[in-house]
Design goal:
- By secondary structure, the protein is mostly helical.
- It has one domain.
- 84% of the residues lie in helices and 0% in strands.
- The chain has 16 helices and no strands.
- The longest helix has 35 residues.
- The chain is globular, with a radius of gyration of 22 Å.
- The relative contact order is 0.10.
C-alpha cells in the first residue's frame, strides 16, 4: 500500500506542478508568439513524431514488466542496443525525407531528431527509476526538466526567436529528464545484443509494436490533417486548445498510469491494495468529469485568462476537445487492464478504431475544417471506449463501468442544476465575476456530493 500512496502522491505533486508551470508558460508564450508560429511548429513536430513512431517497440513496458527477473543486465543491454540502432536508422530516414519534401523545416527536424536520439541513449535510466517504484525521484527530475524547458522557451520568445523558442523549449525537456536520471542511477548500460533476450523481447514487443504505432499516429494525425488541409493559424488555435485540455487530462492520466502497470503487474500486490488503488482511480475520473464540465461551459473565460484575447477564436474548439479529453481519460483507465490481462484484444481494438479514424479524419477535415477533425476524434474515442468495455472482464476487479458512469452522471446533473438555482438570482455587472462565482459554486457542490456518495458506498 505504501508504494501505491507514494506513487499517487508524487505523481500527483508532479501533476500539480505541471498545472502551474504550463499556464505560466502559456501566459507568456501565447502572448509573445502568433498562432501561425505555433501551427507551423505543431505541423513539423507531428510529422517527425509520426515517423519516429516506427521505433515504438514498447521496450519501456518490457523493462517494467520483466524488472524482477534474474537476467536484468542482459535484458537492459539488449534493449539499449535496439534503442540506439533503431534511433540511428529512423533518425537518418526522417532527416533525408524532410530535406527532400519539406526543406523549409529541415533545420527544425534535425534538432528534433538529435534530441530524440540523445534521449534514446539515456532513457533506460528513467524507466528503471519507475520500475523500481522510486516515484519521488522520477517526478522531481520531471518537474526540474519542465522548469528548465519553460525558462528557456520564455527567454528565447522574449528575445524574439519566434518558432525556435518553442523548438528549444521542447527539445530541452526531451533531453534533460533522461540525462539527469542516468546521473542519478550512476550507470550507463552498454549496448550489446544477446540472442536469447532478443527472442524474448521480440515475442513481447510484437504484441506492442502495432498498438504503439497506432497510439502515436492517433496522437499526431489530427494535427497533420489540419496543417495539410487548412492553415497554420487554424492549426495554432487547435494546438493551443489541445494543450490546455491535455494539460489537465494527461496530468490526471499520468498520476495513475505511471503507477497502474508497475503496481497491478506485481505478484505481491494484495487484493486490498488493489481495491484501494481502484477507488483512488475512480475519484480521479470523477475529478476529470468536474474539470471537463468547467472547460466545456467556461471555455471563453479560460482562453482569456491563459492565452489572451487574440486566441478567442479557439473557444469552441476548447469546449469540444475537453469532451474528447474526458473520453481519453476513461479509455486509458480501461486500457491499463487490457495491457495486463489481455493485450491481444487491445491490439485488435486499436487496429479497428485506427482504421475508422484514418479513413474519416482527412476527408472530414478537408470538407469541414477543424470541425470535421473534431467529429472524427469524438467518433474514434466513443468506438474505442465501447470496444474496450465489451472486451474487459472487470468483474474480477469488482468494477461496473455502467454503475460508475451513472453515478457520476447523476452527480454532474444535480450539481449543474443546484448551481443554476443558486446563481439565478445573482447578477453582476462584471461577467468575469459572474463566471467565477458559478465555477466556484459548481466545484463546491460537485465535491460535496462526490464525498457523500463515496462515504455511502464505503459504509455498505
Amino acid at each position: 500500500m505504501k508504494n501505491i500512496i507514494d506513487g499517487i502522491k508524487w505523481n500527483g505533486l508532479a501533476g500539480l506542478m505541471l498545472l502551474v508551470i504550463k499556464p505560466i508558460s502559456n501566459l507568456f508564450m501565447a502572448r509573445l508568439l502568433m498562432p501561425e508560429e505555433f501551427g507551423e511548429y505543431a505541423y513539423i513536430f507531428s510529422i517527425v513524431s509520426i515517423a519516429w513512431m516506427l521505433r515504438s517497440f514498447g521496450l519501456e513496458d518490457y523493462i517494467i514488466t520483466n524488472y524482477e527477473k534474474d537476467n536484468r543486465n542482459r535484458m537492459l543491454s539488449t534493449v539499449q542496443f535496439i534503442n540506439l540502432l533503431s534511433a540511428s536508422l529512423i533518425g537518418l530516414l526522417i532527416v533525408i525525407l524532410v530535406y527532400i519534401y519539406l526543406y523549409r523545416y529541415f533545420e527544425i527536424a534535425v534538432i528534433l531528431v538529435l534530441a530524440q536520439f540523445i534521449s534514446s541513449y539515456f532513457v533506460i535510466s528513467h524507466v528503471l527509476i519507475n520500475a523500481n517504484l522510486d516515484f519521488k525521484i522520477s517526478n522531481i527530475i520531471g518537474i526540474a526538466s519542465n522548469i528548465v524547458g519553460v525558462t528557456i522557451g520564455i527567454s528565447l520568445a522574449y528575445a524574439g526567436y519566434g518558432i525556435w523558442s518553442i523548438v528549444l523549449m521542447t527539445t530541452s525537456k526531451i533531453i534533460i529528464d533522461p540525462i539527469i536520471s542516468t546521473l542519478y542511477i550512476g550507470k550507463l548500460f552498454k549496448p550489446k545484443l544477446y540472442r536469447n533476450e532478443l527472442y524474448r523481447i521480440k515475442e513481447f514487443c510484437s504484441k506492442y509494436y502495432i498498438g504503439n504505432m497506432i497510439t502515436r499516429a492517433t496522437d499526431y494525425m489530427d494535427k497533420i490533417a489540419i496543417g495539410k488541409t487548412t492553415s497554420s493559424t487554424d492549426l495554432g488555435l487547435y494546438t493551443q486548445s489541445s494543450s490546455i485540455a491535455n494539460l489537465i487530462f494527461s496530468t490526471i492520466d499520468t498520476i495513475i498510469s505511471g503507477v497502474t502497470i508497475p503496481i497491478l503487474s506485481r505478484k505481491n500486490t494484495s487484493i486490498n491494495e488493489r481495491d484501494r488503488f481502484l477507488i483512488i482511480y475512480e475519484m480521479l475520473i470523477s475529478f476529470s468529469i468536474l474539470l471537463s464540465t468547467i472547460l466545456i461551459f467556461k471555455s471563453k473565460l479560460i482562453i482569456i485568462i491563459l492565452l489572451g484575447s487574440k486566441w478567442l477564436a479557439a473557444t469552441n474548439i476548447l469546449s469540444v476537445i475537453s469532451l474528447i479529453g474526458l473520453l481519453g481519460v476513461v479509455n486509458n483507465y480501461l486500457k491499463n487492464f487490457l495491457i495486463i490481462k489481455n493485450i491481444g484484444s487491445l491490439l485488435n481494438i486499436k487496429i479497428i478504431t485506427f482504421f475508422i479514424f484514418i479513413i474519416s479524419i482527412f476527408p472530414l477535415t478537408k470538407i469541414y475544417g477543424i470541425n470535421g477533425c473534431l467529429i472524427s476524434l469524438i467518433s474514434y474515442n466513443i468506438v474505442y471506449l465501447l470496444m474496450q468495455i465489451f472486451n474487459i472482464n472487470l468483474e474480477q476487479y469488482r468494477i461496473s463501468i455502467f454503475k460508475i458512469t451513472f453515478k457520476y452522471l447523476c452527480i454532474l446533473i444535480i450539481s449543474i442544476f443546484i448551481t443554476y438555482i443558486i446563481n439565478f438570482e445573482f447578477h453582476y455587472y462584471n461577467n468575469f465575476y459572474q463566471d467565477l462565482v458559478e465555477i466556484l459554486t459548481f466545484i463546491s457542490i460537485y465535491i460535496v456530493l462526490t464525498i457523500v456518495i463515496l462515504k455511502m458506498n464505503k459504509t455498505r
